[in-house]
Specification:
By secondary structure, the chain is mostly helical. The protein contains seven helices and no strands. The termini are far apart.
Length: 139
């Protein structure tokens, strides 16, 4: 293994080994061994990217109810292909070569899993998108 692969793997947060079992599918195993740790590692960047997305879309997000904000997050990731591809790049760029080879074998299904996790992570951090929090986090 080269230094890049070792460095990438060392930088990732550890997830519970309980989420990995013998009888899970290859996609589910990839999700739990690669996608979840990478998304957890990249979480601050994903949050910053969504803050920027809100700003670039005239802060409409801030005028919405909580329920509509949750839908806004889903729609931004599911329907805005440019934004979606940007997020995918932030995650895929953290793959080792071997993980990338696994990813391209079934990228469509893995992209769906990846984006579902990102949507849930952003929703779980919805309070970080409040105007005051977003502003104070920048300072």
């Amino acid at each position: 293994m080269n230094d890049r692969e070792n460095d990438l793997l060392k930088a990732r947060p550890q997830i519970s080994p309980k989420s990995i079992s013998e009888n899970m599918s290859k996609d589910e195993r990839f999700q739990n061994t690669t996608l979840r740790p990478v998304i957890k590692l990249q979480s601050p960047l994903l949050i910053a990217a969504f803050r920027n997305y809100i700003s670039k879309h005239k802060n409409v997000f801030h005028g919405l109810s909580l329920e509509k904000r949750l839908l806004y997050i889903e729609n931004a990731i599911q329907k805005d292909m440019k934004f979606r591809n940007s997020l995918k790049g932030m995650i895929i760029g953290q793959f080792t070569i071997e993980e990338y080879q696994t990813y391209i074998e079934n990228s469509s299904a893995l992209n769906k899993r990846m984006m579902n996790i990102v949507v849930e992570r952003l929703k779980d951090n919805i309070l970080l998108f409040e105007k005051e929090v977003a502003f104070s986090a920048v300072i």
